[in-house]
Amino acid sequence: MKELQFARHRRLRQTANLRAMVRETHLHVEDFIYPVFVVEGEKKKNEVASMPGVYQLSLDYLIEDLAEAVDLGIKSVIVFGVPNEKDEVGSQAYHDHGIVQKAIRKIKETFPDLVVIADTCLCQYTSHGHCGIVEEGKILNDPTLDLLAKTAVSQAKAGADIIAPSNMMDGFVAAIRYALDEAGFTHVPIMSYAVKYASAFYGPFRDAAHSSPKFGDRKTYQMDPANRLEAFREAESDTLEGADFLMVKPALSYLDIIRDLKNHFHLPIVAYNVSGEYSMVKAAAQNGWIDEKAVVLEMLTSMKRAGADLILTYFAKDVARWLKE
Questions:
Q1: Cβ pair 180, 152 in contact under 8 A
Q2: Does the annotation flag 50 for ligand binding?
Q3: Distances in Å between the alpha carbon of 265 and those of 167, 234, 268?
Q4: In the chain, N or C terminus with fewer CB closer than 10 Å?
């Protein structure tokens, strides 16, 4: 009988070292952006109930937390502010002594080489919880651009290395790029939340940032999860307007979009491993249903394999530890 002829794919899977030799996708600590939530006051470390292991930190505890992150080799952090005061126009977002501005200055004084990214939005700062100016129940696009531009400039003045606008107003990259250039910050790049879906995965973040809308939802400015071609339009607009990075948010349910952007654009692609994705894993792990380390590494590897150059993740410190082992 003639011997069967077929491929022997298992030849390259025989041992751990052989599998490592041919592994195509690798996670590195430099891939991760570590998110932090900063609050006013001192000696405050408030665990977010829906995000085990994630805290709202006052500046003193923030520095302790970042010292650990830096020691683990993490190179970049994104700062989300939780202000004491809110108003209709989110004025604490662009105040020179707002919580994010104070945090940026403190971080850069303490860790000058750490890349500090400023989240640039209004929802945490507005009394209504929306990402723009509201008039008769409608979110106004163009007047909001002026406030976003003011916020970006104030963050750059404080020392932010990168501005990361997450608001999804039309024209936000153009408005911010113009304002930064006019203020002398031509060197400060923009990490655009270019493709941000109106996702159900954001709930725990809204607990952490106190940013839930007081009425309605954000579907008039965030994208429909059913749409793919819309992502190309959004990313193309932001690229033409001067974006330096393109972000996809959320990541896990939108790996196809990450790959699409990687294939069609020549900017660094950022995946946001969002709060809901984090909390689901944490809850399942706490119940003993999954191996947290194995699941997290598989998830983040899938994002990297899909085309993400950088991953914004609440697991950043955990993964940095695991990679050191």
A1: yes
A2: no
A3: 21, 12, 8
A4: N
| Per-run averaged pLDDT (10 residues), the chain, 325 residues | 84 94 95 96 92 94 97 97 85 89 97 97 83 82 92 97 92 97 98 94 75 70 92 96 97 97 97 96 97 98 98 97 93
Say how far apart CA 130 and CA 228 lie, in whole Å: 25
Strands (E), 74-190: 76-82, 115-120, 133-135, 138-140, 162-165
Q: Is 94 annotated as a binding residue?
A: no
pLDDT of residue 310: 98
Mind listing the domains of the chain with CATH numbers?
26-324 (3.20.20.70)
Query: Which residues, at least 6 apart from 226, have a Cβ–Cβ distance to it below 8 Å?
Result: none
What whole-number distance in Å separates Cα of residue 213 and Cα of residue 128? 6
Q: Is 58 annotated as a binding residue?
A: no
| Predicted pLDDT at 131 | 76
Positions marked catalytic: 196, 249
For residue 169, give Cα distances in angstroms to 9, 56, 144, 222. 49, 27, 8, 9
Query: Is 131 annotated to bind ligand?
Result: yes
To the question of whether residue 121 is assigned a binding role by annotation, the answer is yes
CA atoms within a 13 Å half-sphere pointing along the CA-CB vector of 125: 24
d(CA 264, CA 68): 37
Instruction: Tell whether omega for the bond before 250 is within 30 degrees of 0, i.e. cis.
Output: yes
Which of 116, 81, 123, 84 is CA-nearest to residue 99?
81
- The helices-and-strands tally (H runs, E runs) of the chain is 11, 12
